[in-house]
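Slides due. Your pick:
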Amino acid sequence: MSENKTVTAPAEEPKVRYGRRTSVKKIGQKSLWEKLFKRKKKKGSEEEDIADAVASTTTDLFDDDFEKAAVYCDNVVKIYKTEDVEVIALQGLDLRIDPGEIVAIIGNSGSGKSTLMNIIGGLDKQTAGMVYVTGNNMAKMTEAQIVQYKRKEVGFVWQNNARNLIPYLSALENVQIPMIIANRKERKARAKMLLDMVGLSHRYKSKLNQLSGGEQQRVAIAIALANQPKILLADEPTGAVDNKTADMIFDLFRRINKEMGVTIIIVTHDRTIARKVDRVVNIRDGRISSELLRQDAYEEELKRIAENRIVGLEESHVEYAAVDRLGRMQIPADIMKEIGLLGKGNVSLNVEGEKLVITVPEEGQKKKKGS
């Protein structure tokens, strides 16, 4: 009798988040590809050369409505070079985030999550692939356009409060700074409204050294929302606060998401955040490895907490493996260990109805026993 061990994917069809590709649409006499990468500057300019080089690395198969996405990444690669070494931070990453979502991007140190956030935020550019954010092709944007993008389209909340706040200004003055730079009117009234929203109406005149860590983060959130961005990027926003304050900050993010419709992307290594968001994207080795999706409303989670009826993530969320546009999939380490695949290089794949069956060859099992 065969000793093969198998792992079977669930029969239910998961909600597809990325990896969907369709043929190129025609728009008049131009293809979607030509529309996306059409030239606006003189040929030979530095921006145009970079855009052409990046464009040549992307696939010509996109989601029909990719321009409507808040964030759309296709085959994104980022390589950091030094004199002696190259580090590949992102290795063909595909990701789609729709407007109004609140998403956590989770990964260990060096997984590529911060690199991805920097590219989405306009702080860095990809080496290859396509990144399309709020209607902007990031590879084609000039430095002047990137500056305007960071002022108006995206807001940042950093873990290090020194990057969020100017210490010698009051909370009210700090919130007004982005609006002064953007030449907005009625700055003071909006700054007060935002501080009221984050629960700091009593801290208008307080400076950095007069605020607790949680209060500083809430001021930072108000600053990030000053110019009404479409996307809020938060880098480890609860890394320096206690659990109670962290819960308060995440509740605030959900309120902002619900009332203002802002797309919120939280980058963290803290996996307990899954309880606070509806969608968690796991990054491993520069690619999306899996995704956790909430199975019931967040209000149900709050109700269980109030009743002291805490359930495991396996009951509130379902985890799906991510399959990229080339058919690559990362098998979770615990499953690899369970079926004896760790340290082995080959498996057989079979389709049984709507199920994909992964089988470790018998020879591999014998080697495992003899080791």
